[in-house]
Amino acid sequence: MTTGYEDRMAPLDGPFRFACDPSVPCFKECCRDLDLILTPYDILRLKNNLGLSSEVFIEEFVIWDFSHDMGFPTAKLRMSDNAEKLCPFLGDEGCKVYPDRPSACRIYPLARATQKHARFERTTDAYFLVRESHCKGFERGREWTIEDWKKDQGLDEYFEMNDLWTAVVCSPFKEKRGKLADRDIKAIFMAAYNPEMFKQFVFQSTLLSRIEIDRGRVDKIRDDEVELLRFGLDWLRFVLFGESTIEVKS
Asked: In angstroms, rounded to a whole number, what is the distance separating the alpha carbons of residues 213 and 42?
């Protein structure tokens, strides 16, 4: 996925200094006119923060981009309809959804490049520092290591869930499929972006009777939307590309 930062990134090979709070002169300047991708996990966290259903959240805050390879639907945050094109979650004091802010906001000023190996069994990460001309955050604050920043910003769970989504979008078997059909797009919308609809499908269809699945996992996906999303992404890899992430009963 592109971030729009490629020409401003430098490899990060040591600590960096950074702060982003109301004391920084440019505070909130980066929260406008964004081309900001929302992952399925981003949307799950945001819609729950706002107390909205997936359908309502998507209708109000998402623009769809189908230009990705194979026609995968990519969700992007809809900016406010004003001259400054402000982030819809920006308030006078800063981010109104800060505990559940999207991945792209959470990792900034870092960028992460991930390379998957051996059918996603091994991951190699590289980190870059994004330096934008307007940002004054590099002039103050404490020094951070990458691990310090990841812990402070709560990035580990986001990385884990976003990597599961990347495993769908960048499946090594996708070349055999070609462009996605309409029914494939509908499956992606349901399993990745609409947990309410996907849960209904899982428990009101014959799916669970036709696959090998541990009873404990069934209980988890019934009670926890994050576990439901994990299962949904496994299911997409199976139905779209025939991967062995789901086992069908003999």
From this structure: 27
Give CA–CA dist 37/5, Å, rounded. 13
Q: What is the pTM of this model?
A: 0.92
Helix or strand (DSSP H, E) at 74 = strand 74-77
- Both tokens of 154, joined, read 């709560």
CA distance 42 to 38: 6
Residue 7's Cα: distance from chain center in Å? 22
Provide the token pair at 164: 């599961």
What is the enclosing helix (H) or strand (E) of 47?
helix 40-50
Q: What is the pLDDT of residues 40-79, one digit of tens each?
A: 999 999 999 999 999 999 999 999 999 877 788 999 999 9
Residues 145, 15: contact at Cβ < 8 Å?
yes
Q: By C-alpha distance, which of 61, 79, 41 is closest to 229?
A: 41
Asked if 167 and 39 count as a contact pair (C-beta separation under 8 A), the reply is: no
Rg, C-alpha atoms of the chain: 19
CB 108 within 8 A of CB 8: no
At 183 the pLDDT is: 95
Residue whose pair of structure tokens reads 């401003």 in the numeric block:
8
175, with CB counted inside 10 A (0-12, 13-18, 19+), is exposed
DSSP class of 69: G
